[in-house]
Amino acid sequence: MSNLNNLIVIAGPPGLGKSYLVKYLTIQYPMSRRVLAITTRKKLPGHIDNLDYRYVTDEEYVRMRNVGKFIIDREKDIPRENGTINIKNGFTKDSITEVLDSGLTPIVDTHDHNVEDLKHAFPYARAIFFKPESEELLVSRMILRSETTDVIDRRLQDGLKELANYERHPELYDACYTINETNLDETVKAIAQEFLPKESIRGEGNSDKYTLL
Fold this sequence. Notes:
The structure is a single chain. With 213 residues, this protein is an alpha/beta fold. The chain has a single domain, classed as 3-Layer(aba) Sandwich (Rossmann fold), CATH 3.40.50. The chain has helices at residues 18-28, 58-66, 93-101, 115-121, 135-145, 149-168, 184-195; strands spanning 8-11, 32-34, 38-39, 54-55, 70-80, 83-92, 105-110, 126-132, 175-179. A hairpin with a 2-residue loop joins strand 5 and strand 6 (83-92). The two termini are 29 Å apart. The model is unreliable at 202-213 (pLDDT under 50).
């Protein structure tokens, strides 16, 4: 159990439910706060601006980049049926320091290739890796969330790459949790006990039970 508010970084394969888990962690333990990624991607069905992502135009993103706002700044061309689309994603240092300055614990859910940069920018950050209970679970989650076979294949390859990267560099992480369809509540409580300041977990949070969607 921590006595200080430090950045918590959560990484793992896409489609596993990292964002979902972090949302419920912050609901159960209100002294924690999710830090939103800034993205130029098209808003996903059911997503809400400034709740799931901070959605911006390409022009807005580039303006922020040009004045040095980002500590994480990634750009990728994503294959589509009619060509490719360019998507930019990033995190600003201000979005994390503002949460820390308010006395709360910032939580970032992201990909494994961002972990080292975030820990370099915030040396006291603690990192957690989520891995699926089985490859079959990862595939089923991606089928549930993805629209086409091409998207599923691409996301699965990305997920397997993240798992391989973790196996090569587990030293980047302070803990690893195995995720299945029913252990969300248990995982949330374990993270709170280990990584949140003790003042923020008095009362053990909300007693509601959640499962991965």
